[in-house]
Amino acid sequence: MSQYQAPIRDMKFQMDEVLDFPSHYESFAQGREASPDIVEAIIESAAAFAQDVLAPLDGVGDDVGCTWKDGEVTTPPGFKDAYNEYIANGWTTLAMPEALGGQGLPASLAGFCMEICATANHAWTMYPGLSMGGIQTIAAHANDELKARFLPKLIAGKWSATMCLTEAHCGSDLGLLRTKAQPQDDGSYAISGSKIFISSGEHDLTDNIVHIVLARLPDAPEGIKGISLFIVPKFNVDDAGNVADRNGVRCGSIEHKMGIHGNATCVINFDDAKGYLISPPHKGMSCMFTFINESRMGVAQQALAQIEASHQSALAYARERVQFRGTVRENPEAAADPIIVHPDVRRMLLTQKAFGEGGRALSYYLSKQADIETYSDSEEAKANAEQLLSLMTPIAKGFLSEVCMEATSYGIQVFGGHGYIREWRQEQHFRDARITSIYEGTTGIQGLDLLGRKILASRGKALEPLVKEIMGFCAQNPSSPYVGALQKQLQGWSDITTSIGMKAMKNPDEVNAAAYDYLMYSGYTVLAWVWAQSAQVASQALENNPSEADTIFYKEKLVTARFYFERILPRTLALKASMESGVDSLPEFSAPL
Question: Is the CB of residue 211 less than 8 Å from the CB of residue 234?
Fold first, then answer.
């Protein structure tokens, strides 16, 4: 069984060589403290914590899981000690403003550390990870009094946060939710209702849990336009920001899930719980998207993490496991060769590598855009970054969550029968990965957001900033072997978008029928672009006589880029044909079946 090692070399390749984060950090005030030596020290410290503390707890969390008794949840053995070490070392404060007790470093740097932790232990990392979205939501929408009351201890990690969206009867259709918010004389609200699927909703890691809750005011209109957003703590908080009496918040049960057993997924019941309005009345969904978009990027990162973890162990196993003789013998005297010599095994490993390293390139590109949107002094740069993030967030979340299931399934397949049993932990990666295409909006919903709300609603203008960047790369690198394929891919993307748009004018269901395939087509296209960039940088680096280790690294980049363009990107041809078949290929089922 292999031990997780943080992929620092590949992280630094994307950060330093492809995306030039050192210059990026120099371009805004909060980034200037993130010098290359500081960044390296932080990444290496995160790697040590993840490898030594979190990774050994991953199997413990899966085997033992969380336990519920009388409304209280106990996390798996070792989780609380790991969390205490995490906050003692200041990881929750890394990218928070100094005025609120933070270290004032860039959000992207905190994200890189979170990726390392999520790869080592997906379930554990969800506890502090969700708090980041809660902090951002309160910071963006609450008044100064509520910020002062709740943010310091959330930032310090002494309290944690959740997002309370759905209810048993509504799933993703939040316009159906029934949780009520009754105004009180003191300006607070009495929140009553029940929420389900609340990740980290109850646990023993922190002194308080701050729920960010969607509910309806008494005069709320029906549907999504009648939802408001509230802070509802597990324990009430006095004016000085200290824990007071127990609020009317209880965990009714925890879910027994396919994966991420170490994270408590809860039913949370609110019984006249004291809450505080943080959105304008009936405008809660637009404010909640601060949390949702943060979480969608977090889910994309979790998908990337599962690909990386599965690939590392599958690669190590394939180098050691001996079965059958290769056409070219590694050791002619041996009875059999390591299975990595067999082309089909390499196909699976290279698919994992292409999605994992390509997904990292995409994730880091979006992290850079998020920095620009948050910190840049240029309104033009901020607006461009906002447009890119709006377009690419559903692509990253939807596409990476889908291919991570393929990649982790290949991890099981490389191990054969040993992958199907728990001893080797490959099947855990698949089970843990499965949730990523469901929560924060299923892949179909991401596709509808991308195609319907973003691209067709803007008559294609939403695509323009990204297409401009990709065409700019093609213009600057005419000798790249992948420019022709990229240009052809962009033209195909434009053509199919126009085709669906024309069909949708006659039948709006064409958008829903094409949404999933369109999102996947978009994801393969975007990953082709980031792989072309990586290949170009690696080719140039090889011209400068790098060290032996770096030579191997760069050559592997070129091999994987070629594999992606020749073996993976052609999948878009099938997706195009599927989309062109239209809604007519999806006839209504007769009832009963």
Answer: yes
d(CA 373, CA 465): 14
Amino acid making up residue 132: M
Round the CA-based radius of gyration of the chain to a whole number and report it. 24
Exposed e or buried b per residue across 168-185, where buried means at least 16 C-beta atoms within 10 angstroms of its C-beta: eeeeeebeebebbbeeee
Longest dimension (CA), the chain: 86
514, 501 contact by CB (below 8 A): no
In degrees and rounded to multiples of 5, residue 45 shows phi and psi of -65, -40
Catalytic residues: 440
Can you give the residue ranges of every domain in the chain?
459-582
pLDDT given at position 411: 97
Q: Are 247 and 231 in contact (CB under 8 A)?
A: no
The three-state secondary structure class of 195 is strand
| pLDDT per position as a tens digit, 360-396 | 999 999 999 999 999 999 999 999 999 999 999 999 9
Local structure of residue 479 (DSSP, 8 states): T
Taking the C-alpha atoms of residue 393 and residue 539, their distance in angstroms, rounded to an integer, is: 29
- pTM for this prediction: 0.96
pLDDT tens digits, one per residue of 528-570: 999 999 999 999 999 999 999 999 999 999 999 999 999 999 9
